[in-house]
């Protein structure tokens, strides 16, 4: 039992030490889960919002999801807590605008799925919030949940290959 606690603590500390906070202005919204942030040193950071997966641009609600994210952050100052890069070189992170979790808001609006494939990378609190918010959006038939059977983006991408 003690070994398990120690291993968990070491894993948390390792991920915490690798975390970076980026402060900047959102200069582009690529889609419903990807933005470009320009920091004070004029360095551009391509950010993939952690814990969510939004519809693809050519998919139902893809453009609405992008528009929703634009309304939330475009041309606004944000704080991004990043912890790794994906295979495309994008920094993965939690985006905050005026203290609001933008990733969570996309789920609440029904503009993204909680991306359970990567849920272990989130804090327990974020996992619970993201899961409950998706369930609530589904129940209230908000955003993409208005469709009877919305296709998750990971299935849509698989079908297009």
Describe the structure.
- With about 160 residues, the chain is an alpha+beta fold.
- It has one domain: OB fold (Dihydrolipoamide Acetyltransferase, E2P) (Beta Barrel).
- The protein has 5 helices and 8 strands, in the order αββββαβββαβαα.
- It has helices at about 1-20, 60-75, 100-110, 125-140, 155-160; strands spanning about 20-30, 35-40, 45-50, 50-55, 75-85, 90-95, 100, 115.
- The strands form 2 sheets. The chain has a 5-stranded mixed barrel with strand order 1-2-3-6-5. Strands 4-8 form a two-stranded antiparallel sheet.
- A hairpin with a 2-residue loop joins strand 1 (about 20-30) and strand 2.
- Residues about 10-15 have low confidence and may be disordered.
What is the makeup of the main sheet?
5 strands, mixed, barrel
Taking pLDDT < 50 over at least 5 consecutive residues as the criterion, the unreliable ranges are 9-17
Strand content bin: 25-35%
SSE sequence, one letter per element = HEEEEHEEEHEHH
Structural class: alpha+beta
Oligomer: single chain
- Helix percentage: 25-40%
Supply the number of structural domains.
1
Molecular shape: globular
Q: How many helices?
A: 5
The level 1 CATH classification is Mainly Beta
Instruction: Give the terminus-to-terminus CA distance.
Output: 45 Å
**CATH fold node name:** OB fold (Dihydrolipoamide Acetyltransferase, E2P)
Average pLDDT rating: 91
Q: Going across the major beta sheet, what is the strand order? A: 1-2-3-6-5
Structure summary, number of beta strands: 8
């Amino acid at each position: 039992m003690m070994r398990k606690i120690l291993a968990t603590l070491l894993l948390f500390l390792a991920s915490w030490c690798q975390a970076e906070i980026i402060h900047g202005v959102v200069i582009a919204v690529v889609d419903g889960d990807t933005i470009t942030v320009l920091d004070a040193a004029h360095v551009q950071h391509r950010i993939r919002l952690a814990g969510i997966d939004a519809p693809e641009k050519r998919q139902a609600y893809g453009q609405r999801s992008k528009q929703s994210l634009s309304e939330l952050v475009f041309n606004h100052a944000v704080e991004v807590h990043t912890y790794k890069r994906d295979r495309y070189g994008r920094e993965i992170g939690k985006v905050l605008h005026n203290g609001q979790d933008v990733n969570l808001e996309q789920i609440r609006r029904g503009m993204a799925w909680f991306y359970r494939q990567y849920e272990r990378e989130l804090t327990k609190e974020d996992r619970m919030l993201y899961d409950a918010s998706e369930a609530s959006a589904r129940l209230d038939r908000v955003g993409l949940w208005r469709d009877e059977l919305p296709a998750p983006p990971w299935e849509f991408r698989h079908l297009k290959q």
